[in-house]
C-alpha cells in the first residue's frame, strides 16, 4: 500500500502550494469538524485542494513546478 498525498494552497494568503499526506489532511479536516462543529467548512474554505491521490514524488514535483511558475 502506497501513501497518497494531497497538494493544496491557501487562497486567502496566496501562499505557495504545499504537499501533505492524505491521511494527515483527513485528520486535519476531522480535527476542524470536531473543534468548530458546523462552522468547520468556513475555516477550511481558503484551502483549495489542487490534486490528491499522488505519490510523494509526484506531489513534490507538482509543488516544485508550481513554485517555479510563480517566478
Helix count from the secondary structure assignment:
3
Low-pLDDT stretches are: none
Report the major sheet.
3 strands, antiparallel
What strand order characterises the main sheet? 2-1-3
Can you give the mean pLDDT? Answer: 86
Shape label: flat
Write the element-wise H/E pattern from the N-terminal end onward: EEHHEH
Radius of gyration: 13 Å
Helix/strand/pairing category? alpha+beta
Count of DSSP strands: 3
Distance between the termini: 36 Å
3D structure, described in words:
By secondary structure, the protein is α+β, with helices and mostly antiparallel strands. 48% of the residues lie in helices and 25% in strands. It is built from three helices and three strands. Strands 2-1-3 form a three-stranded antiparallel beta sheet. The longest helix is centred in the middle third of the chain and has 15 residues.
